[in-house]
Amino acid sequence: MSVRTVSVLGLGWMGAALANTMVREGHTVTVWNRTAEKTAPFVGRTAIAPSVLAAVEASDIVFVCVLNYEVTDEMVRTPDVLAALSGKTLVQFSSGTSQRAREAGRWTREHDVSYLDCTMSGGPQHIGTDLGTFHYTGSRDVFESLRDVLTPLIGTSTYCGEELGYAAALDFAHLGAFTGVLMVLGNVVSLLKAEGVPLDDFIATVPFLSREFLNGVVEAVTADQYPSGAATLTTWKAWADQFVQAELDVGIDPRVAQVVRDYVALGIERGHAGDDIYAIFSAFGPSR
Fold it and tell me: Which of 146, 163, 180 is the last residue in one of the domains?
């Protein structure tokens, strides 16, 4: 494996996991984060860039892992950063709609920047392991040129073609189905609790959901604590905003996505901004 120069912009759970994996694989890594305290674990292990521009100048490959495409645009669509990006490769791990992914592809082509869009099946805890999947869209030549860098990042690295909107649409489908199930469970569990029906009686009579998954739900609801192990409700809210926009972009009824968004927002309002997605259950019970 050849040693590559890689910069990681954004050191949330996912960005930090990407950077750690790149360090483990022996690449020359530079990191940047808007708040300096998140760079502390990387002191002495990577270069710490004082700015986005310095991070982009340091490497031929730039991973962006921030809240959404809007934040990415604020960071990289400036004249000096764009000049530094020219001739390099940008890999987008941030959340965005299919339409925004296509627009990013057009923008990078116009400015001589190689581009891949990436979405994930799994969580940050799967990065650097043999579990989980990254779905990449963009130029096959670009993907193949980075295969040695991308393969160790996660269990499976799947190239999904040049249609940049594919990965984003697949991501909304996966996470939309997951949050939809959680929404229904949160609702019915609240009903059972209000009526005094034991949750174990419910679990014993549900044949279409795995016992492991239901046990996790009951554990979260019973403990009324939702420590984050994958992504905070704040991150999920950013994704849910994009979910609504993705449906508006293609002209389908967005009300299901809006309900998901609104209940995530209510969970945040009830004090769970830093907790995991299971904190959405707090939005179904009586306000406290």
Answer: 163
Pure H helices in the chain: 13-24, 52-58, 69-76, 79-85, 98-110, 140-145, 147-150, 165-195, 199-203, 211-223, 233-249, 255-267
Q: Are residues 31 and 144 in the same domain?
A: yes
Alpha carbon distance 231, 236 (integer Å): 7
Cα(35)–Cα(10) distance, integer angstroms: 9
pLDDT beneath 50, residues of the chain: none
pLDDT of residue 155: 97
List the domain range (segments joined by +) for residue 71: 5-163
Residues in the chain: 288
Residues 6 or more apart whose Cβ sits within 8 Å of residue 281: 182, 185, 186, 189, 190, 217, 220, 221, 226, 267
CA-nearest of 215, 216, 221, 210 to 187 is 221
Q: Answer with the one of 163, 185, 220 that is the final residue of a domain.
A: 163
pTM: 0.91
Give CA 84 to chain center in angstroms: 26
What's the domain count of the chain? Answer: 2
Nearest alpha-carbon partner for 120 in 65, 183, 74, 62? 65
**157 shares its domain with 193:** no
Phi, psi at residue 180, to the nearest 5°?
Answer: -60, -45
Same domain, 220 and 271: yes
Q: Is 288 within the bounds of a domain?
A: no
